[in-house]
Amino acid sequence: MAAPVTANAGPRPRNVIIFLGDAGGLPTLGAAAILAHDRPQSLFIQSMPHVGLSDTSSRNRWVTDSAAGMTAIITGHKTDNGVVSMIPGTAGGAPVPVKSFIEYAGQHGLSTGVVTNMPIWDATPAACFAHVPSRKDKDAIFSQMLAPRFGKGVDILIGKGRKDADASFAKGGTTPERAFAAAGYRYGDDPALVRQAARAAVLRDTDFAPLPAVEATIGQLARNPRGYVLMVEWDMHTDDPQAGLRHVVEMDDMIRRIAAVAGKDTLILFTADHSFGLRMGGGSRGTPLAAQFAAAAATPGTTIANNPVIGVEDGHTGDDVITAAAGPGAAQVHGFFPNTHIFDMLMTATGWPRD
């Protein structure tokens, strides 16, 4: 049974930052902590004061994909795998869009932002602002960035997918530069430009430094006296174990820094949309785990799947994932609950009624 959502008796947050570790399940967090710091439970995430465990199943599968997983978190509705912020219509009717917490924030006058190291049209960021029956419909997702179903759209967008945007907007006889400019955005490939514009879209096809991009985004969003809501996604898939675990540490360092500077009026929440098939199978204390993993990987016949130190079966899993929180409203995070409960907690913390 889900932990009950009770009225927020304390102060309400002015700002909300949702950190989403894509595929950041408990085994991945545990391995990253030891790999990076050679001691367990050494991530900042693992020190956050309020912790619960979230079920990640989707409406039609025990093991979710990112589309259904993020839809549940950000809208409070379970949906089918592959569907972005929509639910099935009644009596077999057309799918119905469901409003995201980001869209509620915009309608309440807050500034909003989405930052990701994945394509900006990918399932997790798209669930914040788009409503499509298929996560593969890039053209509809790009269109809804600029012509949202609810509200005025996300103010700051940072992610990958620049070539995808070029191809998508070309189908309509325009370019991303012209389309975003017509919608009131500054457009470019350098995250620093968000310091210069209240509405900006930064798309690129290469990695970017996470902390400067997030700090610049918060600096711009915080100019709104009513506050802001920001969603930051960082990919933690461990089909490449070293890259995935490095991304965990990147996000953890980011959360540590942002928690120190965001202010006491900011609710900070970390969660994952689903877990992944990583397991620590060995390793000795007293020797850096990274060295042990590398030595095992260099042994003839060792694969990513059968590495005896950290092995990965490439795929999503149905394990519960951690939700950790700090700041006003964070005390609601406790116990076991479905992923839809996270949306309920956010709405209770802010005091916003559902439409």
From TrEMBL:
CDD domains: ALP. Keywords: Phosphoprotein. Pfam families: Alk_phosphatase. InterPro entries: Alkaline_phosphatase (IPR001952), Alkaline_phosphatase_core_sf (IPR017850). The keyword rRNA-binding does not apply. Belongs to the alkaline phosphatase family. This is Alkaline phosphatase. The lineage of its organism: Bacteria, Pseudomonadati, Pseudomonadota, Alphaproteobacteria, Sphingomonadales.
